[in-house]
Amino acid sequence: MKLLRTGIPALSLTVTATVGLAADYELFADIASVETGVNHYAVERLDHKNKKLYHCIAVLDAETKQLTGQCTERPGFPENPTRKGVQGAISNRFGGIPVFGSWKIDQTTGKTELCISGTAHCVDVTPQ
Asked: Nearest-CA neighbor of 65 among 102, 39, 45?
C-alpha cells in the first residue's frame, strides 16, 4: 500500500508534464502538383503561439534544380486546431523519375522547410 501511494504523485506529475509539451507549431494538408518542368509543393502551417495560419509553398525547377519557397499569412485561425504536430511527406514525378519532398517543422521554434530527398536540398520558408 505504501508503494502505491508513492507512485500516484509521480504518475500525476508525469501526466502534467506531458500535457505541457503540446506543439507550438504544426503542419497539415500537404499537397503537390506538377506542371511541365516545375514541381509545386504546398502545406498549411499553424502558429499556435501567435494564433496565425500560413499557406506555405515551395517550387522545384526541373531544369535548374533551384528550390524556392515562402509562407504567406492567411486570414483566420481554426477554432479547434488539431495540435498533432504533423509533418507531411509528398512525392511527385518528373518524366517518370520520383521526386520526393518532405515538409519539416521544428515544433518549438517554428522553423519550416521543404527538403528534396536524395539531394539533401532544402528551402527554409519560415515566416519572418
From this structure: 39
Q: Which three cell numbers stand for residue 28?
A: 497539415
In the chain, count of helices (H) and strands (E)? 1, 8
Terminal-to-terminal C-alpha distance of the chain: 55
Q: How far apart are CA 77 and CA 68, in angstroms?
A: 26
Please, are residues 49 and 105 in contact by the beta-carbon 8 Å criterion?
no
Ordered strands of the 89-94 beta sheet? 89-94, 97-105, 112-116, 121-124
Tens digit of each residue's pLDDT (9 = 90 or more) over 48-90:
999 999 999 998 887 888 899 999 999 988 887 665 655 554 5
How many Å apart are CA 70 and CA 111, to the nearest integer? 12
